[in-house]
Structure prediction request, 143 residues.
Amino acid sequence: MANKQTEAPPQVESARGVEEIERIRDIIFGAQMRDYERRFQITQRDLDRLQQEIDRLAERLVAQEREQSKKLQDLRQEMRKAHDGLRDELRQTAQKLTDDKVDRQALGEMLIQIGTYLETGAPPTGLLPLSDILKDLGETEQD
Prediction:
């Protein structure tokens, strides 16, 4: 029975053993662990700072993307207006050319009249003299 009284219960012995092991571990690895902990904290702060910077840059990127999208939309509208304006101008020019060109039939009749005048020396009845015809042609070209 004497052995039983001098021996500590297994739980107490186990707790003392763990404490001793922790103390030995602290003696052997303590400085190194503190250095690792300090490095880890510095690295964690750097990561947090970098994450904040990434978040800030992402917000700026989104804002720039919105701005560029708006500018692109404005440019597209401007190009549409310019395109429509050019198209209208082209239609007007084409219409003017269509209106101003001499009709083939009218030109043919005029050439026949000129030919008749040159052949006979006198204008055909009911037709204008050659000088008036040429004068009309000159006015048409100026318009």
